[in-house]
Amino acid sequence: MDRTPRTNDRYSRTRTGGGQSGAPRPARSGAPARSGYGRRPAAIQGEFALPKTITPALPAVEAFADLDMLAQLLAALGAEGMSVPFPIQAATLPNTLAGRDVLGRGRTGSGKTLAFGLALLARTAGQRAEPGQPLALVLVPTRELAQQVTAALTPTPVR
What we know:
Layout: H1 71-79, H2 87-97, H3 112-124, H4 143-153
Helix pairs in contact: 2-3
């Protein structure tokens, strides 16, 4: 039995467990001590890995008129004074209108809502949802953002 006196003096202890051995002590949770703290985690493998893109992206467009969209939708954009898409819209709309999945990240005000919203409106125009079977689902993290998305997509006359 070890009868050495213990102390709560934090300066007398070392990071390796009181100086008795050179081996790192396990974490308080019982899990092994973590090495490389603060490093980037390894790439995710298997089921949660990002899919490999095998289909090249369609080229960006210069104007909304270059897109294969309904005349009503183009007229609504023109009425709002929008003829040239923001970069995220120019890059993603050709792909979303073709039914492809996209991932777009950008700052506030960069045009993300219309980037997905215009394709959603174009692809669901003229269709009616059946009870319990929505035509589209937009997931947002807050009620405020849901209200902003609704306001941005509601004024368009396509139904």
